[in-house]
């Protein structure tokens, strides 16, 4: 059995679940790219793939993640998966939580596994209740939120991806690739909506004040109040764009890293910020 997850935190959670339930024993593969943001036109072609790498290089510049561009090789991971699946006794379980990161990763991956359709299983956690460590019912958005003991329940959700799903999901991903929106959000189930690159800009502006704040504090505000999350590197890149547009004032030098960066609203933006609701 091969488990496939889309977020780093999911690996440790799944490993703990495997320790509790030997029937889950298997290798864990991690699809690392966040396909919910960035260009995806011609994503399987050399030009489209390189265009996406060039974009990520720009986004990760001056971030704590600059080295990650060289270690993220989902094409190689997928090739290794395909080679393993040539063993007809092998099967793959794709774990998909209800967030745009997982769903977009699933769409990108499933298009490359059709020849193994009878042995590809999906575990969709959409709108499913679990019990947390305090004994309360909750609906997880990320796989890592589920207590390891609850995976005994979760594994019962595994089912083969149907032939029609391979076709329909493949067509849906092709449509998203042709739209090539720079942001993609989840609208329930597996419904992904293409958005403009500025989708999170209002939330960023709403997290700022006329007094300068450190970048990490701004991130804390955003991640606490935003209903639809994205990565900090993408948000920082958008902040740079907003600085270039004169909508944010910068203190510090990006070349010295995030820790030295402080941001605030320009004077003219003070009244505008009051009209924006970050919780929307």
UniProtKB/TrEMBL annotation:
Ranges for domain DUF1835: 2-123
Signal sequence extent: none
Domain DUF3658: 156-254
UniProt-listed Pfam families: DUF1835 (PF08874), DUF3658 (PF12395)
Protein name as it appears in the record: DUF1835 domain-containing protein
Species: Parafilimonas terrae
